[in-house]
Specification:
12 strands, alpha/beta, 290 residues, Rossmann fold
Length: 290
């Protein structure tokens, strides 16, 4: 049996245990997956503890995606430029970090028939998810990426770290104030990578509805609730929307590949069923036959 988990703060709302266990079940594999609430200052202590030592791997979420890197023995070559990881695998006793978020973003965008070639993309936030989205958007041919950050030094650091990795895509940052209005109004796609709007704060939104009028596509990496206020406002503005559940599913599949050491035969898995069951888990919906 593969022993896995997820660390972060908060993790109470995470649907990862359900999704990962479901994917393993569909693959005919046994897994045990637990949530571990690890506060920002407790990461080192947790990694040295009994819980971490008993795992074969784990997911990493807010606020540890960049903070965990100094404690890892290695980072996968493809993931290293992002300086953020969301998956850790124990291999020969060593902790190796990976980033499957960027792959999840790319697949979610592709599956929704969105073409980012020569597009302007605005990313709200400057954390680990923002790095993954920026890298993924550059791989899809985006012309310009603007990081809108509440803490400008964080945005500056993201641009500094990723500038070479995303080339020839242009990358810039702006503070989360009136300076952000122009790039937002020029954006083809807007992606929220902050936790704003996450359950239980479902009435919150990172942007006023008026700022969505010129966008063609709006994506929210928040998946609980599935239809965030940002996405609801985007629909009212005639934007195409992409829910965070899509990215969650594809990054999870890539994470399973990492933990099992090879790419799985996902064509043999009914992914529509997986999505429906995960959707129902998040929303609490139950069919009459359940």
């Amino acid at each position: 049996m593969v022993k896995l988990g997820i660390i972060g703060d908060p993790v109470k709302q995470s649907v990862s245990p359900f999704l990962i266990e479901l994917l393993f079940e569909k693959l005919g594999q046994d897994v045990a997956y637990k949530k571990y609430e690890v506060l920002q200052g407790d990461l080192r202590e947790w990694l040295r503890g009994r819980a971490a030592k008993g795992l074969d791997g784990f997911n990493v979420t807010i606020p540890h995606k960049t903070a965990i890197i100094p404690f890892l023995d290695a980072v996968n070559d493809r993931s290293a430029p992002l300086k953020a990881v969301n998956v850790v695998r124990k291999h020969d006793g060593k902790l190796v970090g990976y980033n499957t978020d960027w792959y999840g973003f790319v697949k979610a965008v592709q599956m929704n028939s969105v073409d980012l070639k020569d597009a302007n993309v605005v990313i709200l936030g400057a954390g680990g998810a923002a790095r993954a989205v920026a890298f993924g958007a550059s791989r899809m041919g985006a012309k310009r990426i603007t990081i809108v950050s509440r803490k400008l030094p964080h945005g500056v650091l993201v641009v500094k770290d990723l500038k070479a990795a995303v080339a020839p895509t242009l990358m810039e940052t702006t503070p989360w104030d009136v300076n952000a209005v122009e790039p937002i109004e020029q954006a083809y796609m807007i992606v929220n990578t902050t936790p704003i709007g996450m359950k239980p704060d479902i009435r919150q939104t990172p942007l006023d509805k008026d700022l969505l009028e010129n966008a063609s596509v709006v994506m929210d990496v928040v998946y609980n609730p599935i239809n965030t206020r940002l996405l609801a406002d985007a629909l009212m503005s005639d934007c195409q929307t992409i829910p965070g559940l899509d990215m969650l599913m594809y990054q999870a599949m890539a994470a399973v590949d990492v933990w099992l050491g090879e790419e799985q035969d996902w064509k043999a898995v009914n992914l529509d069923e997986v999505r429906e069951l995960t959707h129902n888990k998040i929303t609490g919906f139950k069919r009459k036959d359940q």
